[in-house]
Amino acid sequence: MAHVPSSPPEDPTHLPQFPDGAPHAASSTLPSGRAGGRRLPDAVAVMDRLRSPGGCPWDAEQTHASLVPYALEEAYEVADAVDREDWAGLVDELGDLLLQVVFHARVAEDRSAEEGGFTIDDVAESLVRKLVRRHPHVFAGAELNTEDELYHSWERIKNRERGARGEVAPARGRELAAALARMPRGLPPTVALPKVLEKVGRAGLDVDHVAQTASSGAPGGARLGEAVLEIVRGGGDPDGELRAWLAALVDAAGEAEAAGAGSPDSPDPR
């Protein structure tokens, strides 16, 4: 296994200050007094055993690309557990999602730093620094009292982060196009649409006019798009509502089958 050094330390004032004054917690007790994280090293150790010589051949041959379908599936299973308010099941599903994080990190450890390798500590450190950096009103004494102030602060910070990564700032008047281009291409339309509409509105454009233009350009999807738009206008969650309807459809199909509503000559659906 290649040794991958952790990221170089930054100014510790940019990290959360815990009761002992250190930039990170040395124990498993959170600043709130709640215990947490004691078993996370065990999850990392188990994953390391699975990927190491003498471990599991299937785990050892996985790559970042081969794991992508599993990460997507586990995320949807988390959403399903939340929809059903299955809190015991949510524990299990969150564990499966956490597995994807430690799995990807362990795969990356097999590469050198020059090859883009990293460790689970790099992942955790990156997360902590990002959360602290993006919440100056919590960790740096900034005065942000409204949702609009929070949004613009968040955007300014993300723009600085992109600049630090060497990304070229969009031309003036093309900020919205750049923001939309950065959205993940694999987002389901019912998830992506509210995000697009929010960004369009934040840019000061007429959302209705933009939607009408879209309907003219893609008339085949206009009816569905406008229905989803109406849900968003009403403050609803189109993806959540569609998942709930689909779950009800599955239940209704099962009940109809149990009641003998299907034709006796109906083909086996499998």
How helical, in percent, are the residues?
Answer: 55-70%
Structural class: mainly alpha
State the CATH topology of the domain at 39-118.
Answer: Helix Hairpins
Number of strands: 0
- Compressed to H and E, one letter per element, the order equals HHHHHHHHHHHH
Q: Extract low-pLDDT stretches.
A: 1-16, 18-23
Beta fraction: under 5%
Task: Indicate the overall shape.
Answer: globular
Relevant CATH superfamily of the domain at 39-118: MazG-like
Spatial gap, N to C terminus = 45 Å
- Tally of separate helices: 12
Largest sheet: none
The mean pLDDT is 84
CATH class call of the domain at 39-118: Mainly Alpha
Which second-level CATH architecture of the domain at 39-118 applies?
Orthogonal Bundle
Rg value: 24 Å
Brief rundown of the structure:
With about 270 residues, the protein is mainly α. The chain contains twelve helices and no strands. Among the domains are: about 40-120, MazG-like (Helix Hairpins, Orthogonal Bundle); about 135-170, no CATH class; about 185-255, no CATH class.
Summary keywords:
270 residues, single chain, mainly alpha, disordered N terminus, Helix Hairpins
Notes on the structure:
This protein is mostly helical and 270 residues long. Among the domains are: 39-118, Helix Hairpins; 134-172, no CATH class; 187-254, no CATH class. Helix content is 60%, strand content 0%. It contains twelve helices and no strands. Helix 10 (207-217) runs antiparallel to helix 11. The two termini are 45 Å apart. Mean pLDDT is 84; it is low at 1-16 and 18-23.
